[in-house]
Inverse folding.
């Protein structure tokens, strides 16, 4: 009766045994080690790779409406669209252009693992008509408009991205393992060539009945099995 398990045993018995050499063991140790170092590198990259951006949340124009009989007018602030910034204002005295800016920091590589949004800041550009002494009043007027629009951000927020952490750690794990493989590759090749040359030399000596170790002509002591010069065995088990 046909027994698949007997067949499997047969295949297993006849399959070529793969022996791990010292380079394979170093690579294997690297795989384990890099799994622990990768998250540490991701953490370090958060301070090494920082990209800052700034975004203007809104534009505000501060101006003064002329008062009666040359008296000082009333300071007013209005939210404007970005395309209105170049438009001239009729009948009012422009005082300052204000931008509400929010800076952000994106940290980490290859993916952004941490994202910080800072509290928004007002950037005031005073026009020639506005003396420096009036800047606090300009700021107050603009701030009231920003708060009224609900655009003012008062506190920094830091967000950590868990999925990016996992992916970046995996990427660093793979990159470190590949780097180790690249370092080991020429060593593997050198070792392979050294072994192959050495085997060829020793086999050539054995073929001529010389000692494989020192090359002494051992024709007359071949039955003793040992080299009279250096004492090593004259027959080697072939290396696979
Ligand atoms: Zn010898």
């Amino acid at each position: 009766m046909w027994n698949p398990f007997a067949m499997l045993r047969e295949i297993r018995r006849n399959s070529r045994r793969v022996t791990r050499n010292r380079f394979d063991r170093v690579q294997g140790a690297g795989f384990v080690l890099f799994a622990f170092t990768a998250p540490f590198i991701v953490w370090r990259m958060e301070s090494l790779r920082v990209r800052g951006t700034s975004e203007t949340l809104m534009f505000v124009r501060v101006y003064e409406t002329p008062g009666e009989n040359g008296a000082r007018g009333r300071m007013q602030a209005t939210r404007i669209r970005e395309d209105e910034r170049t438009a001239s204002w009729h009948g009012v005295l422009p005082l300052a252009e204000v931008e509400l800016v929010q800076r952000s920091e994106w940290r980490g590589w290859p993916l952004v693992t941490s994202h910080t949004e800072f509290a928004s800041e007002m950037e005031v550009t005073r026009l020639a008509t506005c003396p420096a002494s009036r800047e606090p009043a300009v700021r107050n007027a603009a701030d009231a408009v920003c708060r009224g629009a609900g655009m003012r951000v008062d506190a920094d927020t830091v967000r950590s991205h868990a999925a990016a952490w996992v992916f970046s750690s995996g990427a660093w794990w793979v990159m470190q393992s590949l780097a180790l493989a690249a370092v080991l590759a020429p060593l593997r090749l050198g070792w392979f060539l050294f072994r192959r040359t050495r085997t060829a030399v020793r086999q050539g000596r054995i073929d001529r009945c010389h000692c494989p170790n020192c090359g002494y002509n051992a024709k007359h002591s071949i039955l003793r099995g040992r080299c009279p010069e250096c004492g090593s065995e004259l027959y080697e088990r072939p290396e696979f």
Q: What stands out?
A: Residues 162-207 form the longest helix (46 residues). The pocket of zinc ion is lined by residues 211, 213-214, 216, 227, 229-230, 232 (CB under 6 Å).
